[in-house]
Amino acid sequence: MVRTKTRIVLLSIPLLITFTTLGFITLFSSNYMTVSDLSRYSAPVKVSVIGNVTKGSVRYHDGILSFILTDGKQDVFVRYRGILQLDNSTSLARVTVIGIYYPDENVIDAQNILFKCPSKQEIEGYKYRFNKTST
Questions:
Q1: Distances from the Cα of 104 to the Cαs of 36, 69, 130, in angstroms?
Q2: What would the pLDDT profile of 83-128 be if each residue is shown by its tens digit?
Q3: Which of 24, 40, 102, 134 is the most buried if burial means most Cβ atoms within 10 Å?
């Protein structure tokens, strides 16, 4: 009887360690990165970067919005083709830029720019859909 309990405890310890490790990895992993995280790339790659718009860096030219995104340690130049409400008065606005990062130029060609935390947008979108269908 004592051998059976000991065997169960010994077999359950590796399972407990495995599940705890997987839980921590899932909890602390994120698909979003900071501007400083971009330094690990040496080839073009699709990224989702969170940072602040640098004050005075916003420019519009020939239908292209450009600005500098920073995390306070490093900067990256962002280009976006399209219309977006972003101006120099929104300095230090927190945005998420999704696009292709070109490390040789230190540029992100943005496909999408989000102004809120994506999880908050999903919650607000759900609330909007729920309220719209319930009325």
A1: 15, 17, 45
A2: 776 655 555 578 889 999 999 999 999 999 887 644 444 444 444 4
A3: 102
C-alpha 98: how far from its chain's center? 8
- How remote is the C-alpha of 32 from its chain's centroid? 2
Q: Where are the domains of the chain?
A: 1-30, 33-124
At CA 77, angle to CA 72 and CA 78, rounded to 5? 110
Please count the other Cβ atoms lying within 10 Å of the Cβ belonging to residue 96: 19
Q: Is the pTM of this model over 0.70?
A: no
DSSP 39: G
| pLDDT tens-digit readout, 9-40 | 777 787 778 777 666 555 444 578 899 999 99
